[in-house]
């Protein structure tokens, strides 16, 4: 309303054009919103206005226009728009460009499928939800840079063409024309380079950096993604956690007005035992309850042969039909949870004198025994207890996934923010197929000092000086205190099955740097795309990436990846016969 009476020029796209005979109304959309432009054609309209009205009749959706006119207060205000109190009485219009009819409506709730939106992403970006997502991303990047710069962090760019390492996820590789038969790799993270920066005396480093992993995709993964990558020298784990907890608290307060209390620090062992997963969503309870001691030894073979029998109590779900229970059983055995199966107890009545329990294992246990299980789970009338069994670690993971799925179905995961640190991860995990240890995080993570005495005798029991930040059940970031001693780093590679020659070939540059006064150091990296989705309450990181790939790693808009000319293949010393899979 402050512009009322002013003559203004507005440039943008035609959202809609409506011819009302005596008036034409054109909604003009730009990055800042939608404004109604009015073209008079009544008896009191001037010759110029009638001419502009004639132009307005020719406008189509998404035409690019420039309109000039006087700002007036609207009689029929639109409370759903920021500019809904005013309109522009047009005295001049220029059609800057015409447009084909777009393949979907450019509106908040579009009629397009995701593949179509990805193919015409430049049109999708005109929609408010995508534009606002990109603005949120920009604001977050600026906030991070300002915060860390004010904390004396130095932004340093690290190389994109680096050396391939076979550990971890698959690399994207790039052939070198000038070095026939040799390849660069795109970085999965700047890990070794930021450690070398610490050796170089850049004691506080950060970078908002592109990383690349050739792995199977899902809602929170893309082949190329962005990290907030950080490292510090002369620090302890507490220093790191306090520093970056402060940053995240600042981000959430500034971006969405949420004030976190001090983050809980939960040991990995507790997270797995109580939540079945190392990134627990603590917005809802439904903790895992172990029933091994009361369920084994009763003649039910699948229980008697199991290491662990574990349950969760789904409050208020005891009235689910048998059909719905069958759906839960099917979901438990699917790839969602990968459990051996699911048994249930319906707590229809637990009151003394009217004991009534329905269960899929009633013939093996009395009602009194099952009521004891229900009591151990904290169940009450109307609740549903779901039970899984099997090998300890796998069963906890399956139940953790089931817990999350039930939390989502029951609407327990769609509100608020809860954050914690998960700490004291195992340093190593045993790979049964390869018959050797693998690093739980990566090979540069330091063991906890108090566990160093077990590094040679009980390496599987050594805890890592590592930590993950979890928000709403999503791993938002993770890191560790690093190894900075050559001998310890060499021992770590040995535990991971590296020969001395291979370790030197792959990482000799890093171990060599450790011989020149490497300082103690540590750091972490945050998933920048994931943080955007949490702040914006969106289901997928694709909404916050300007030009994302689909779930097959393809860019539908530019048709990438694609074959290259035979001449290029020959220059790169690659074979020229390539079979292209159908997209």
CATH class of the largest domain: Alpha Beta
Question: In angstroms, what separates the terminal alpha carbons?
Answer: 52 Å
Runs in which pLDDT lies below 50 for 5 or more consecutive residues are none
Gross geometry: globular
> Can you tell me the number of structural domains?
3
Q: What is the CATH T-level topology of the largest domain?
A: BirA Bifunctional Protein, domain 2
Let me know the CATH homologous superfamily of the largest domain: Bira Bifunctional Protein, Domain 2
Q: If you compute it from the alpha carbons, what radius of gyration comes out, rounded to the nearest whole angstrom? A: 30 Å
Would you tell me the overall average pLDDT? 93
| Largest sheet properties | 8 strands, mixed
Beta fraction:
15-25%
Q: Strand order across the biggest sheet? A: 6-9-10-22-21-20-17-11
Which architecture of the largest domain would the CATH scheme give at its second level?
2-Layer Sandwich
Tally of individual helices: 16
- The percentage helix is 25-40%
Going by helix content, strand content and strand pairing, the class is alpha+beta
Number of strands: 22
